[in-house]
Amino acid sequence: MFGSMQNVPLLVNGILDYANINHNEREIVSRLVNGTIHRETYGQAHLRARKLAQALQALGCGKGDVIATLAWNTHRHLESWYGIAGIGAIYHTLNPRLFAEQLSYIINHADDKFIILDTTFLPLMEGIADEIKNVKGFIVLADAGEMPDTSLQNVYCYEDLLDAQSGDFNWVDVDENAPCGMCYTSGTTGNPKGVCYTHRSNVLHTLVANSADVFALRSIDNVMPVVPMFHANAWGLVFAAPAAGSKIVNPGPNMDGASIYQLLTEEKVSFTAAVPTVWLMLLQYLEANKGKLPDLERVSIGGSAVPRVMLEKFERDYDVSVNHLWGMTELSPMGTIAQFKSGMEEMSFDQQMDIKVKQGRAPYLVEMKITDDDGKELPRDGKAFGHLVVKGPFIVGEYIKGDGGEILDEQGFFDTGDVATIDEMGFMQITDRAKDVIKSGGEWISSIEIENIAVGHEGVAEAAVIGVVHPKWDERPLLIIIKNDGADVSKEDMLKYLEGKIAKWWMPDDVVFVDEIPHTATGKIQKLILRQQFADYTLPNTKQAAE
Ligand code: AMP
Q1: pTM exceeds 0.70
Q2: Is residue 267 flagged as an active site residue?
Q3: Is position 13 within any domain?
Q4: Is residue 307 part of a domain?
Q5: Chain centre to alpha carbon of residue 426
Q6: What whole-number distance in Å separates Cα of residue 421 and Cα of residue 380?
Q7: Residue 447 is assigned to a structural domain of this protein
Q8: Residues 200, 205, 211, CA angle at the centre, nearest 5°?
Q9: Beta carbons within 8 Å of 531's beta carbon, 6+ residues apart
Q10: What confidence score (pLDDT) does residue 2 get?
Q11: Which of the residues 330, 449, 451, 475 is marked catalytic?
Q12: Which of 1, 39, 38, 45 is nearest to 19 (CA)?
């Protein structure tokens, strides 16, 4: 007996088709690299994506080719993803914040055939042109009048390419398991590794992202993806927003507080998503300018842990609901989201913040558990912490070209490299990256938890905690702090502030004040560099401890 349902493949281009038919007049608003605001409809984006598909075919691209994008969030970048996927090719997002050597490594490793890029990134490409000889040409996201001089060879103007096509085009037929998109991990150690999403995995991720306990996007929402399309598949929003028929508001290159605030208010954004650093800039701007957020209902924050002060400010001072999200490039990227369960909406504000500060619970299609070093599952009691492993149809099964070897365990779970607790209600909390966790006397100390509490001190702009070698305990925590401008904070003030907020044996052995903390291309603290910087650091009292 066979099932009697239609076997329609799950393809991402069907999402733009849907938006074209059902939400044709809904807008995509973009701040361009030249600063102007551009507006078009889903209907226009649909036509232009098909024109790009024709243009790419005319340039000799087809099924299975990898076409890179190096661009800010704009309508043209969105059209590019759909145009590329629509000929059965693979969009590959390049992160401009990577070092030049990493970029050329990635471009060669992925075998990129063409690179579609914003004018801002031409110098970056010119700098590595000699290293990326297999790239056949560059498509500049500009109109003819804006085309800058460049030493690059085989350069095409995006708008000219589109103007030469009719748009009378049917998306190329592909299997739903065909490759569709590609993204490399930020790679704090060793070379970046590539993850390749399929049409099916992207569509399933879209359905889950739009479910009521996740982003819950609706056609009446105005959605601003501040999270760049060049990081972690744009958290799936390039697919989720058109699938819901939401208006999209693209911030382009301007992520400062004033520019984000302008779009949030003028475009009446109801849902937005980004990493904590962006929201720190916005909150500072709001405070300095007595700004209000009357239209914003929900903000999803992830990529790094949300500090409790940030969470409380959004919720209490601006009446915006925060959904803490945890994800990874390898997960398309969503893994968990902190949404209430029944009964939690009745809790006190403080209890609710205790829940929302956690990274959240797994949606349908994400299986997760924590394990000890031998792979044995640990209890869901909110206390035991272990390796966070995940399984599901939009979670990586292997890296591109088999890099890293076999990455799934016998049951098919992927080790995220994060260390976490899971509580009785299923809420996961990240305590560290496995390589950053501080091992003191055989027990683990969470650097992230101490950092999050430390940034709550009014004199602290940023905090990092690393393990420093200790003769008796193996490692002890060192708290590294950047002070706020003009703040007068001492080591004693910091230790007093932490007292009672963390276990006694978690108390940092020392506090140092610095001007700078190194970050990765995706805004995460580079603990490896910090550990190198403080490799010879001697903690106070280490001599007595050794005796
Ligand atoms: P990426 O693939 O660059 O997005 O990096 C994924 C990693 O970022 C995860 O494995 C976590 O270590 C970290 N991460 C993402 N979201 C969060 C979060 N909400 N809290 C703490 N760490 C996070």
Answers
A1: yes
A2: no
A3: yes
A4: no
A5: 23
A6: 7
A7: yes
A8: 130
A9: 466, 467
A10: 86
A11: 330
A12: 45
Which of 222, 406, 414 has the alpha carbon at shortest distance from 332?
414
Q: How far apart are CA 358 and CA 200, in angstroms?
A: 29
Catalytic residue status for 185: yes
Supply the range of the domain harboring residue 164: 7-189
- Chain centroid offset of residue 442 CA: 33
Q: Which of 63, 292, 439, 472 is catalytic?
A: 439
Percentages helix, strand, coil for the chain (3-state, rounded to 5) are 30, 25, 45
Low-confidence residues in the chain, pLDDT < 70: 186-189, 543-547
Residues with CB under 6 A from ligand 1: 185-186, 232, 302-305, 324-329, 333, 359, 416-418, 430, 433, 522
- pLDDT value of position 188: 58
The two structure tokens encoding residue 187: 């790679």
Q: CATH number of the domain that 529 lies in?
A: 3.30.300.30
> What is the residue with the minimal CA distance to atom 7 of ligand 1?
328
pLDDT tens digits, 354-394: 999 999 999 999 999 999 989 999 999 999 989 999 999 99
Distance 181 CA to ligand 1 centre (A): 20
Is 330 catalytic? The answer is yes
Task: Mark whether 444 is an active-site residue.
Answer: yes
Alpha carbon distance 252, 71 (integer Å): 9
Give distance in angstroms: CA of 540 to centre of ligand 1.
Answer: 33
199: enclosing H helix or E strand: helix 199-209
**Cα-based distances in Å from 225 to 234, 280, 301:** 7, 16, 11
**Where residue 37 sits, what CATH number does that domain have?**
3.40.50.12780
- List helix spans (H) across 290-438: 308-312, 349-356
Separation CA 57–CA 122 (nearest Å): 24
Q: 50 in a domain, yes or no?
A: yes
pLDDT at residue 140, as a whole number: 98
Domain final residue, candidates 155, 189, 223: 189
Q: Which residue has the CA at smallest separation from atom 15 of ligand 1? A: 303
In total, how many domains does the chain have? 2
DSSP 322: E
Tens digit of each residue's pLDDT (9 = 90 or more) over 505-543: 899 999 999 999 998 877 788 898 999 999 889 888 775
Mutate to test the pocket of ligand 1, among 326, 358, 447 (most ligand atoms within 8 A of CB): 326
516 C-alpha to center of ligand 1: Å?
Answer: 21
Domain closes at, from 189, 220, 246: 189
